[in-house]
Amino acid sequence: MKNLKFALPNKKGNILVFLALLCLTNLRGQSTTDELTARFFEAYTESHTEGINYLFNTNPKLMEGKKSQFDEMVTTVEAISSNLGAYRGHEKIGESSIGDQKKYVSFLLKYDFIPVRLGLNLQKQQDNWVLAGIMFDTEEFEDELHEAAKLYRMPKKVSMEHRGVEKVIAKFFENYRESPEKAVDYVAELNEISGHNEIINVEESKIELSEFSASLGEMKGYEKIDHIQFTESYALTSYLVKSKTNAVRFSFVLYKADAYWRITNFTFDDDLFEELQEAAKVYRLN
Question: What's the confidence (pLDDT) of residue 279?
Fold first, then answer.
């Protein structure tokens, strides 16, 4: 699989992972997790440092012996805005619980350039919910989107109503028909229009896509395979691109920081046969 990622240097990978051990004293939490996260985002919007401080203040014992790790987290989180652009709000991804005492809640933090996933590990002690651990990452959840789009994980029926995304993809393929280089330029332009001019690997991406296109031959058309909406502002959509002798898959990661969708990453591969074989295994049949 070829993976063409449009990202700034040093933005790739996990920003920071810090899982803290939970202690049982000096708690200043909230009676519900919704109250705790609402207070956190209120503070985080004003100042990222203030938000992190609020979370750790729900359970001061987390700081004991971990001051350097905490300071590193604050420094890294403060650097997010300067690297990724303005903070545009958040969307809840989901939550999971173990009994009524432990809960993991995840959010999409929206920045101009790319989103960040925030995971909060929360635990109820006495009558309050407090922080037990925190994670920020930019990479793993994109990989999870690609895995979710594998043919053997697809539902039997897929909703195709994503018109804002479809307009962007249609324009990509319109440019691709003219030349692979023009398609890459279009993706770069989308990101530059959004105020991000430090796109990397554009020329390398043109070479890779041109070589792949030459091996595929003239495009005869394309069909949607799947669309996965991670949140309202983050999605992955995949298409079957047909030539006279072969068919390949193009997958696009799309992000909407404001009113407009843009492609932040796209891949192309010919792994469809292997995935179809896997989908036909007895243990995957309904």
Answer: 64
Contact residues for 153 (Cβ-Cβ < 8 A; gap 6+): 147
Q: Kindly indicate the confidence band of residue 61, based on its pLDDT and cuts at 50, 70 and 90.
A: confident
Mean confidence (pLDDT) of the chain = 78
Measuring CA to CA, how many Å separate 195 from each of 63, 149, 187, 235? 38, 29, 13, 21
Give pTM, 2 decimals: 0.68
Q: Nearest Cα to 67, choosing from 27, 20, 30?
A: 20
In the chain, CATH 3.10.450.50 covers 16-138, 143-284
| Whole-number Å distance between alpha carbons of 127 and 192 | 49
Do residues 265 and 235 touch, judged by C-beta distance below 8 A?
Answer: no
How many residues are recorded in the chain? 286
CATH of domain 16-138: 3.10.450.50
User: According to the CATH classification, is domain 143-284 in 3.30.450.40?
Assistant: no
Note the Cα 268 to chain centre separation in Å.
18
Q: Please report, as a single letter, which amino acid is at residue 183.
A: A
Q: Do 213 and 180 meet the contact criterion of CB atoms below 8 Å apart? A: yes
Per-residue model confidence as pLDDT tens digits over 84-99: 888 999 999 888 887 7
